[in-house]
Amino acid sequence: MDNIEKLAMELEKARDAYRANSEKMTVKEAGELGASIKALMDQLSRAIASGAAPCPSCKAAPIGMVQSTTVKRVQMRYFEVGCLGCRDHRTQGMSREEAVSLWNSGKWAS
Ligand SMILES: [Zn+2]
């Protein structure tokens, strides 16, 4: 299992724990779990966007995301690399490498 799969699973587990326990947790516990979810999201984002050049328009580091969609009742996962500041600058690929390579050649998804 690669790093991205591992991070995605940890993130899912942390989010499940948050949902399952949100009413039982103290403010401190909720804050800590929230912070670890945020940290995992940042790590996952950097791992997915690894190798992507800074945004050509605003020079910000792009973020990476795993998205899922349902096509003909089949759950599919794809990767997205995009700039938070420039909403029209984003690419999608079936692998993170594809999304990064499209990003680096400026082939934005419509
Ligand atoms: Zn930008």
Count of strand segments: 3
Q: What number of domains? A: 2
Shape: globular
The proportion of residues forming helix, as a percent range, comes to 40-55%
TL;DR of this structure?
With 110 residues, the protein is an alpha+beta fold.
Notes on the structure:
The protein has 110 residues and is an alpha+beta fold. It has a three-stranded antiparallel β-sheet. It folds into two domains: 3-48; 63-105, no CATH class. The longest helix is centred in the middle third of the chain and has 22 residues, at 27-48. It is 45% helix and 20% strand. A hairpin with a 2-residue loop joins strand 1 (63-71) and strand 2 (74-82). The protein binds zinc ion.
Task: Give the secondary structure arrangement, pairings included.
Elements: H1 3-21, H2 27-48, E1 63-71, E2 74-82, E3 90-93, H3 96-104
Antiparallel strand pairs: 1-2, 2-3
Helix pairs in contact: 1-2
The protein binds zinc ion.
Zinc ion binds next to loops.
Output the keywords.
20% strand; 3 helices; three-stranded antiparallel beta sheet; globular; 2 domains; binds zinc ion; 45% helix; single chain; 110 residues; alpha+beta
